[in-house]
Amino acid sequence: MSKETERKALHQAIWRVANDLRGSVDGWDFKAYVLGFLFYRFISENLTEYINAGEREAGDPDFDYRFLSHADAEGAREGIIEEKGFFIAPGDLFDNVRERAPRDENLNETLSRIFKSIEASATGTGSESDLRGLFDDVDVNSTKLGRTVAQRNDKLTRLIQAIGDLDLSYGESSIDTFGDAYEYLMTMYASNAGKSGGEFFTPQEVSEVLARITVMGKKSVNRVYDPACGSGSLLLKFTKVLGKENVRGGFFGQEINLTTYNLCRINMFLHDINFADFSIAHGDTLTDPAHWDDEPFEAIVSNPPYSTKWVGKDDPALINDPRFSPAGVLAPKSRADLAFTMHMLSWLAVDGTAAIVEFPGVLFRGAAEAKIRQYLVENNYVDAVIQLPEGLFFGTPISTCIIVLKKSKQDNTVLFVDASKQFVREEGNKNKLSAENQEMILETLAKRADVDHVAALVDADAIRENGFNLSVSSYVEAEDTREEVDIVELNARIKAIVERQAVLRASIDEIVADLEGGAR
Question: Is 229 exposed, middle or buried (0-12, 13-18, 19+ CB in 10 A)?
């Protein structure tokens, strides 16, 4: 069996677990249990492998942390937390709890204690903010799991057994497998969640395009950032594109939704990003941004919420905020899209690149948004605008676009790319960027030249004359796919049809006359 076949089989098994066990719990809510237990298993195995490797290298080939006494483990607690950011006592490891689960009449209380203990182990350390509240959405006492404690514990037992039965050993690394399993679950939940699914998860192929745009020509970058990071899929694409060792300074993000904020931190751990190498904050990026004191980011990627509301001009202090003040105007209260754009530009490094998914309206709407576009163009920050196909994102059929920003451009032009036809159709109404589609976009950006019906390199003066309209269709002429018509031939065909019609009409009149004569 090939690795890809094994991978698909695992995905099917994971989704079957998610559906078979959820019972009365809505699938959207049940994701917290599946992902939470997957995370619990991962950190248990990851910690055990880390400790075992160290002890076996030190001369004890048979050492296994699973069977270490509680007292001996406590003696190593501080060192373990310093390295891994958390501590799990041997008896609280996933495998040991799983083994006892069928006989544990208080399994819900056991799990609740363990989850709190794991989070508490980081209190007062550098990893405290990374662990705090990670298990909040895994409510082991919820009546949705069952009306009685026995029913809830039966559901929890079956869940922990099912997660434990998953063979997460394919590929070169079990770490990659955990991360892949997580991404698959997120994709499936997003596709089944309708509009809400698109609010926390960016399709993997779109994430990869954005990441690759920001690192074109580079083998490493200093610090990556997403101010509306959702579940972290965009940030983590840098581990695939560059390798996590080539992301110097780490991964940074902020997320306003508490549940999604927890999912993002879990995702970091599942991709084996050490607590010291990521900083994910909870809160409103526009009005209460984290990472104020951090150095600028060399790569920024984001898919912020489309046309979401924000306080805007109702907060007079915002017009003096150094992120927004350069444009001299704030984004409309009903459409915060360009507020996110200005925020990202402000925190972009001089040698950095930002790739932002935008709602198409920001490219052409007037009033305040037109003034912000004017600021971006006149200061030579807009490097490219890419029109994407419709139906790429979960829960919305709209065709989005990508705005690429840079602070150190080599010329005063903007490349407009029409990639609206670059997609393959999946089951249902979902479109996807294939590997070939992705390469077309990236190669067009790299060449930075006019291509008939695909790309146009436009001087800033021409954009100014066009009212700072940044719509791709204003600069890239669509291909005329209509067939050429031979007028002489068309007229001859029409004449023949008219003559034939006259013959048929005469024949019909004769038939009618004969019928009337016979009736008399």
Answer: buried
Contacts of 66 (CB under 8 A, 6+ apart): 48, 90, 93, 95, 96
DSSP-derived secondary structure letter, 196: G
List, in sequence order, every residue forming a beta bridge with 390; answer none if it has no partner: 399
Contacts of 265 (CB under 8 A, 6+ apart): 130, 134, 232, 278, 280
Q: Rounded to whole angstroms, how far apart are CA atoms 80 and 53?
A: 13
- pLDDT (tens, 9 = 90+) of the chain, 520 residues, equals 556 676 777 777 777 877 777 776 766 677 788 888 989 998 999 999 999 999 999 888 999 999 999 999 999 999 999 999 999 999 999 999 999 999 999 999 999 999 999 999 999 999 999 999 999 989 999 988 889 999 999 999 999 998 998 877 644 444 456 767 777 777 776 666 554 444 446 778 889 999 999 999 999 999 999 999 988 989 999 999 999 999 999 999 999 988 889 889 998 998 889 999 999 999 999 999 999 888 899 999 999 988 889 999 999 999 999 999 999 999 999 999 999 999 999 999 999 999 999 988 999 998 999 999 999 999 999 999 999 988 777 656 778 899 999 999 989 999 999 998 887 877 656 788 888 999 999 999 999 999 999 999 999 999 999 999 999 999 998 876 556 667 777 778 888 887 788 777 777 767 766 666 665 5
Q: Are 429 and 391 in contact (CB under 8 A)?
A: yes
- Are 27 and 189 spatial neighbours (Cβ–Cβ below 8 Å)? yes
Structure letter (DSSP) for residue 213: H
Give the CA distances from residue 233 to residues 28, 166, 400, 462, in Å, rounded to whole numbers and listed in that order.
Answer: 18, 23, 18, 37
227 SS3 class = coil
- Angle at alpha carbon of residue 213, lines to 212 and 215, rounded to 5°: 65
CA pair distance 272, 178, nearest whole angstrom? 9
Q: How far is CA 263 from CA 25, 227, 229, in A?
A: 18, 15, 10
What type of residue sits at position 406?
K
Q: What is the 3-state secondary structure (H, E, C) of 327-396?
A: HCCCCCCCCCHHHHHHHHHHCEEEEEEEEEEECHHHHCCCHHHHHHHHHHHHCCCEEEEEEEEECCCCCC
Against a cut of 0.90, is the pTM above it? no
C-alpha to C-alpha distances, 31 to 120, 138, 328, nearest whole angstrom = 24, 9, 44
Tokens describing residue 425: 């159709």
Phi, psi of 476 (to 5 degrees): -105, 115
Instruction: Using DSSP, state whether 134 is helix, strand or coil.
Output: coil
Q: How far is CA 378 from CA 303, 334, 403, 460, in A?
A: 24, 25, 15, 7
Buried-exposed string 174-183: b where 16+ CB fall within 10 A, e elsewhere:
bbbbbbbbbb
- Crossing angle of the two packed helices 77-84 and 27-57, in degrees rounded to 10: 120
